[in-house]
Amino acid sequence: MPRTHSHPFVPYSPQRLSDGEGLRRGRELHEHLETRRSVRWFSPEPLPLAAIQTAVRVANTAPSGAHHQPWTFAATRDPALKRQVRAGAEEEERRFYRERSAPQWHDALAPLETNEDKEFLEVAPWLVVAFAQKSTPRPDGGLRKNYYVSESVGIACGLFITALHTMGLATLTHTPSPMAFLTGLFGRPATERPFILFPVGHPADDCEVPDLRRKPLSEALVVVGEA
Ligand code: IYR
Q1: Could you name the CATH architecture of 71-204?
Q2: Ligand 1 pocket member 109 (CB < 6 A)
Q3: What's the whole-model pTM score?
Q4: Residue 93 beta carbon below 6 angstroms from any ligand 1 atom
Q5: Is the CB of 167 under 6 A from ligand 1?
Q6: What is the ipTM of this complex?
Q7: Which among 66, 78, 70, 55 is positioned nearest to 165, based on CA atoms?
Q8: Does the Cβ of 174 fall within 6 Å of ligand 1?
Q9: Of 90, 121, 174, 177, whose Cβ has the fewest other Cβ atoms within 10 Å?
């Protein structure tokens, strides 16, 4: 029975793999991603715009609520803008680290040895801010409401991180909360809120990361119900 549609549909038949080949590729991807770490010490060596463009092309393949694609990735390698971002971030982080308003949170962060110094925001060759569009301005001046914005932008950011790692590059999910100043610095409209700030580049030669372990699969996956 042919289906009837009120909107255009096209056939979709992605490559069918054998179970063995599918598993092999999945294991290879896992092995590759297992080596990814968040980096806070970057090399200042420049990185071509093409690297950022490619990673954002990958991010832009993310599924999204009603296919509204509610993200904007704003990128800069402008030293003056990076300095302003660092200054703004450090001002907010100083408050967080000095006021110690959430002792439990500070205890949880201790093994990462993070502090209010955000030098990496100036050292990394690129800063990329993923903005979440709560709504999107229409050409007619109206506003289109977006759905599942955090989920959609979160998935796009995950793909962005995966692309960078695959390209041999490093990043850090610096979460700008509130960091509303980024909207103005990057010239984005008030309908967008900064979601994640990514410094992007190569790790410094003497880069170190905290000695952390990933939780075992038994804690990440539960299989329920009958086989
Ligand atoms: N935003 C602070 C604190 C911070 C919070 C979490 I949760 C981290 O995983 C790491 C840091 C900062 O950037 O230092």
Answers
A1: 3-Layer(aba) Sandwich (3.40)
A2: yes
A3: 0.96
A4: yes
A5: no
A6: 0.90
A7: 55
A8: yes
A9: 177
